[in-house]
């Protein structure tokens, strides 16, 4: 059995036990970039050199999440398959990663809405409210009821559109793994890349026709236009050891990413979708280069404080909306101080989410891509 298992693992690019890396820190950095971006936009505040509408900020935090997730989730599914576990075990792991935090978030937010007076107890039985709560419980939190239109920005948490996109990727990964194992990794990559290009093209077309149309919005929150980002993570986690890894290559990737990011502002809505996908290629290389070669102090930071990235992403918009509901736009605290207040409150919520909800849930996993099943991943 040993002689057949090793070649198969080599052929499919089975991941080795992961070494300490900076990926958790990069996810936290990406989440904080999103937090700052939304705080500046929605509170109309300046943050250091970044002003509302200026665009002088890192706007690809979600892309970083998707790239890293692509590699980790594919590796987790491949390990599940090669260890002889059923796919139910893989889906159990995926559910433990996101569902507990989202479900607790829903309960807490409902309580905050009641305490703030944004809704009354009678509203809890209204179809709009039930549809909003139900969509969140089912991990498709993209319905924004008119009932809550007067609360803050009018959307309790628009950032959660990424959840159905992520879940969509979870659902197709077993098929990708089986294709890689039973046929070849190359065929899996080619077919997925074709699907990714077609999905990105469809999204670009729909955005160009009418970005607010229902079909355009539904496609935008699905995995369809984002499959290429996940695929980049899958590819890089498979071939990273065989790629050139040096400072000059990383600088070239940074230059390419900067140029393509600039180009996004020179084209129309459809063009921005396509150029953003091209920009993800050098960005993905940078993510993996820093992830593997970043300073040791960054590798230890998230080990000390916990993986706060998901919690920060979940909680920052409720924090912003509560501050706006409380009249924060008229407070004497403005500009950078206001944004730092949002960051501080968000990280407090993320810390509680990780230590009270996420980490205990992840300890229920029976296997982990990080090697030790007793460690959360």
Low-confidence region ranges: 1-18, 371-377
Q: On the 0-100 scale, what is the average pLDDT?
A: 90
What would you report as the Rg, rounded to the nearest angstrom? 21 Å
Largest sheet: none
Distance between the termini: 29 Å
Give me the count of strands. Answer: 0
Number of domains: 1
Query: Which percent band covers the strand fraction?
Result: under 5%
- Estimated structural class: mainly alpha
- Range of helix content: 55-70%
Count of DSSP-assigned helices? 14
Summarize the helix and strand pattern as letters.
HHHHHHHHHHHHHH
Please characterize this protein's 3D structure.
By secondary structure, the chain is an all-alpha fold. The protein has one domain. It is built from 14 helices and no strands. α3 packs antiparallel against α4, α4 runs antiparallel to α6 and α7 packs antiparallel against α9. The longest helix has 30 residues. The protein is globular. The two termini are 29 Å apart.
Per-chain topology:
Layout lengths: L1 H11 L10 H21 L17 H22 L4 H30 L10 H11 L24 H21 L2 H25 L4 H7 L6 H13 L7 H18 L4 H25 L2 H10 L3 H17 L9 H28 L15
Features:
mainly alpha; disordered C terminus; disordered N terminus; 0% strand; 377 residues; 14 helices
Provide a short characterization of the protein structure.
The chain has 377 residues and is an all-alpha fold. The protein has helices at residues 2-12, 23-43, 61-82, 87-116, 127-137, 162-182, 185-209, 214-220, 227-239, 247-264, 269-293, 296-305, 309-325, 335-362.
